[in-house]
Each structure stands twice: as structure tokens, then as C-alpha cells.
Amino acid sequence: MALRRVLGLGGALGRRSCCSKRPLLPDFVEALRAMVGGPNVSTAMAVREQHGHDESMHTCAPPDAVVWPQAVGQVQELAALCYRCRVPMVPVGTGTSLEGGVNAVQGGICFDLSRMDTIAELSLEDFSVAVEPGVTRKALNNHLCGTGLWFPVDPGADASLCGMVATGASGTMRPNVLNLRMVLSDGRLLHTASPGRQARWEPGDRDRLGGGHAGTHSLAPCRKRAAGYDLTSVGEGPRAMAPRPEHPTPALTGPAPLQRPLLPDFVEALRAMVGGPNISTAMAAHEQHGHNESMHTRALAAGGTCTGEHSVGLGKQALLLEELGQEGLDTLRRIKAALDPHNLMNPGKVL
Fold first, then answer.
1. Contact criterion met (CB below 8 Å) for 121 and 179
2. What are the backbone dihedrals phi and psi of residue 89, each rounded to the nearest 5 degrees, phi first?
3. Please, what is the angle between helix 72-85 and helix 26-36, to 10°?
């Protein structure tokens, strides 16, 4: 009876704004339990707070409830319910992002996709694998042991593949995604590529239009890179894999703390120290995750971008305006409004 009342949009619940932070009505919570089972729904404050932040400096913003769907069909049903009742939806993988992308700044329901962790299909012939959204990169590579293939994208943390797609992890996820199956805000299912994996859409930001996704990814051999990643629905899909290097190239690594203005002179000195006519050198540097705004402003002035791997989320909204301009930002908003007319998919982020 509670489920029928909720789905019928009875009373004030049907008028709930996505900007409201009023507590969820008991009938709505009971409807969630009817869809995924009581043990897969929690309104406990400790659980909500755990899901209300990532590893960034942004203040915790807990959702009103957390659900653990275990199948794409359940995600579709949950999304359709939230759509009809105008309740925001925030998908969460492992919570290792760095821009507040999982913070439920307008309340709503957190979709914890960690229990959708099946590796559905592995094709050694075309170097691709289909996974559910909760599969992590380490779990995938453990599954690939003995095949001569691996999934080469490594953001450092043992992130979920769906989260890596959402944030553009390491700045290299796009070429490793062959297809995504995404649940839209009203519960419909969108395939981002044709059966032949000709891309129709590209991986987006944490302010995604779909509530969860599965995918097909490309894998790479140990010695050469291969293509092919397919993500399906709320958390399944193939991913690209790469072969494991049998003879890694020696590298000189280590922390070199210094003030940022000294970096150019330091880099040139390092080149002179390790370089030579018969030596090839490669240097890699990673800014500490303080996301210093002046650094990003300088990057924009030099023709770069404000985000390369951690998405925009909450922390870089002003920089996104500086990079794209008002017209570019308004265009993105119109695209989002066409697919998410009630602004229920992770609202308050990016745009």
C-alpha cells in the first residue's frame, strides 16, 4: 500500500522540490525497501555521513537515505520513483574522488553501486571487458591475471570503474571506454554506443546525466596498448585492457618539495643533470591535491584546462566559467536540462 501511495504521487511528496532538504516521508522510505529489500536501505546518520563526502576538503553533505541496488532493473525502478517524487539522486562508487562529487548538497538518495561488482563478459580476442559499476580497477586486474592483459588506467586509489568514468580519472579514461549503459533520471536506459561500439556519446563529469552506469572497457596487452571499453547501464560494461610490461623501464622517482615559482628552474636543472646524448629522459610531476586556484588560473591563461582528471564537482565551478565563458556554460546547462529536466541527477555540481 505504501508503494502504491508513493508511486501515485500522493500529497505533498509529489511536490517536493529538488532544492528541498525536508526529511523523506516514511512512505517513500518504505517504497525504497520494497524495491531493493530492507537490508539494502539505510537512513542511519552514521551511514549517511559516510556517504556524504569524498576525500576532498569539502564539507560533508549527507543524503537523506542510502540504497544499495544490485541489478540494473532495480536502479531503473529507483530512478523512476525518485523522478516522480522529485527526489535528487547521487551515485557513489568508492568515494575516492577529490572535488566533492558525491556530496549530497541538496539531500536526496545516495545510490551506492558497490554491490554491483560483476565482471560480466571478457573478450580476449578484441581486448575488451564488460563490467558492472561497482567493479574496482584492482579487482578487474586481479581477474585478468594469467590472461596477458590488464586495465592500464591507474588513478592511484582503488577506484570503481564507474567513478573513474564519471571523473575522467587520470585524464585517460575516454579512449578506454567503448560503451556505457546509463540509467537516465526517469529510469530509462541509454546505450552510448552502437553494437559495433561506434561512440554516440562520451564519458561525462560527476554531474552526470545518468544515475548509474555499466560499461565496456578496452584492455591492453603487456607490451602494447589496446582499445575497447564498454560500460553498460547503472554499472556494467566492457573496459579496455593493456598487456603487463614484462621489463619495466627504470625510473627515477621521489618527492622534490619546493615552492611552485621555482619549478621551471628546477625542471631545467634536472634535465641537465640526467640528460645526455645517449639518454632519453622522462619527467612526471603531480601537484599535491590542494587544487591551488592560482595554479589553475595560470593553466587557463596558458591555454590549458582547469581539470584533467578529477572532474569539476564543487571545487572548480568558478574556474569552469572562466574556461568556457558564459555562453559555453549556458549551452551545457541547456543540454543537461534536456536530459534531466528536473535537475535531479547529482544537483549542485559542475553547472
1. no
2. -125, 135
3. 160
Distance CA 294, CA 147 (A): 45
Percent of the chain with pLDDT over 90: 37
pTM (2 decimals)? Answer: 0.71
- 203 phi/psi in degrees, rounded to 5: -55, 140
Cβ-proximal residues to 71 (8 Å cutoff; 6+ apart), any chain: 116
> Is the confidence at residue 248, as pLDDT, over 50?
no
Neighbour-count burial of 121, counting CB atoms closer than 10 A to its CB (0-12 exposed, 13-18 middle, 19+ buried): middle
Which residue is listed with cell 614484462? 246
pLDDT value for 89: 96
- pLDDT score of 265 more than 90: no
Per the CB < 8 A criterion, the answer to whether 51 and 66 are in contact is: yes
- Could you give the CA distance from residue 61 to residue 75 in angstroms, rounded to a whole number? 22
Would you give the DSSP letter of residue 134?
A: T
pLDDT given for residue 169 in this prediction:
80
Side chain identity at 156, as an amino acid letter? G
Which domains occur in the chain, in start order? Answer: 2-112 (3.30.43.10), 119-241 (3.30.465.10)
Q: Is the dihedral of CA 332, 14, 22, 50 positive or negative?
A: negative
Q: Is the distance from CB of 156 to CB of 162 less than 8 angstroms?
A: no
Report the pLDDT value the prediction gives residue 342, as an integer from 0 to 100.
95
What are the DSSP calls for 279-326, one per residue? Answer: B---------TT--HHHHHHHHHTT--S-SSS--TTTTHHHHHHHHHH
- How far apart, in whole angstroms, are the C-alpha atoms of residue 54 and residue 59? 9
The Cα 4–Cα 326 span in angstroms is 44
